[in-house]
Design a protein that fits this description.
With about 120 residues, the protein is of the alpha+beta class. The protein contains 4 helices and 4 strands. It has one domain. The longest helix has 15 residues.
């Protein structure tokens, strides 16, 4: 096979939120076939150290508001409307009062990122 025709191989180290956003950006910007491999040391993607129980507790919030968090598939404000009720209750998230300029609990944000990853891979 002609090496020029082979897909470019890209490795993303870490499948936390930043890795997932990079994955999406690469897919959307691709003008040729890509072979992307996500490497994650945790047992599931979407967490990242600051978004997992290894680096955050329930009271820790994101350092950006929801409007600054890129959509993976569904905009965050839409995803929250359909989030599991138990998850919303666990993090005291009120769908009615939510707006995109609020910061989110980090552990809640990781659940959103992980659930959306499985929509694109």
């Amino acid at each position: 096979m002609n090496p020029a025709k082979m897909p470019k191989k890209i490795a993303i180290i870490g499948a936390g939120p930043a890795g997932l956003f990079m994955y999406k950006a690469l897919i959307e910007a691709a003008t040729e076939p890509l072979h992307i491999t996500l490497f994650e040391k945790q047992d599931r993607a979407g967490l990242g150290m600051p978004y997992s129980t290894a680096g955050a507790c329930t009271e820790h919030v994101t350092n950006v508001s929801a409007n600054e968090i890129p959509s993976i598939v569904t905009p965050l404000a839409e995803w929250i409307k359909n989030a599991p009720e138990a998850l919303l209750q666990k993090f005291c998230m009120d769908v009615e009062s939510f707006h995109e300029y609020k910061v989110l609990p980090r552990l809640f944000a990781s659940k959103e990122a992980a659930s959306q990853l499985y929509c694109v891979v």
